[in-house]
């Protein structure tokens, strides 16, 4: 009966439901494959990270990270790369692509201290491009980009902050 139900789910394109059933039965690899087939890379990633035995397989990890990158789920891919260990540089690249600058900066402070300044400037640029000038100011200051910080303060009409930046 279970096999017939599973076949019916697959025949009717209900891979997510089939994956949920497999997961509840303890068939984590089968569930992971169903989630990937259904295009649910983030759900597959969460399942993978919750099961240590699956995390030990480089092939499975690569399969899930490829699906995450293909779906442009960069922050989740970075998280997975970071959790695997030894792939911190790939995690940092993913965080950058996904504009997850808080996580990128945190990782860089631990693993790549020389990158922190560059990340702070990138973060400031991203915020400025998205018209969040108030927030960009502090990141430019952290990056040592006083002129960009001053420009952002002026454009944000933060006159007191602009004066403070000039005084420094």
Mind sketching the topology for me?
Blueprint: H1 2-11, H2 15-24, H3 28-37, H4 41-50, H5 52-55, H6 58-70, H7 74-84, H8 88-97, H9 101-111, H10 116-129, H11 133-143, H12 146-155, H13 159-167
Helix pairs in contact: 2-3, 3-4, 4-6, 6-7, 7-8, 8-9, 9-10, 10-11, 11-12, 12-13
Kindly describe this structure.
- This protein has 168 residues and is mostly helical.
- The chain has helices spanning 2-11, 15-24, 28-37, 41-50, 52-55, 58-70, 74-84, 88-97, 101-111, 116-129, 133-143, 146-155, 159-167.
- Helix 4 runs antiparallel to helix 6 (58-70), helix 8 runs antiparallel to helix 9 and helix 9 packs antiparallel against helix 10 (116-129).
- The longest helix is centred in the C-terminal third of the chain and has 14 residues, at 116-129.
- The chain is elongated, with a radius of gyration of 22 Å.
- The model has no long low-confidence stretch (mean pLDDT 91).
């Amino acid at each position: 009966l279970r096999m017939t139900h599973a076949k019916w789910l697959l025949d009717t394109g209900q891979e997510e439901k089939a994956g949920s059933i497999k997961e509840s039965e303890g068939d984590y690899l089968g569930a992971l494959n169903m989630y990937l087939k259904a295009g649910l890379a983030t759900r597959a990633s969460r399942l993978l990270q919750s099961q240590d035995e699956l995390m030990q397989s480089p092939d499975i990890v690569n399969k899930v990270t490829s699906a995450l990158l293909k779906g442009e789920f960069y922050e989740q891919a970075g998280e997975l790369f970071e959790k695997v260990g030894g792939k911190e540089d790939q995690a940092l690249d993913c965080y950058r692509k996904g504009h997850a600058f808080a996580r990128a900066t945190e990782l860089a402070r631990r693993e790549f201290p020389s990158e922190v300044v560059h990340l702070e400037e990138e973060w400031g640029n991203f915020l400025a491009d998205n018209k969040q000038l108030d927030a960009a100011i502090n990141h430019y200051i952290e990056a040592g980009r006083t002129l960009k910080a001053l420009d952002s303060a002026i454009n944000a009409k933060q006159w007191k902050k602009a004066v403070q930046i000039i005084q420094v």
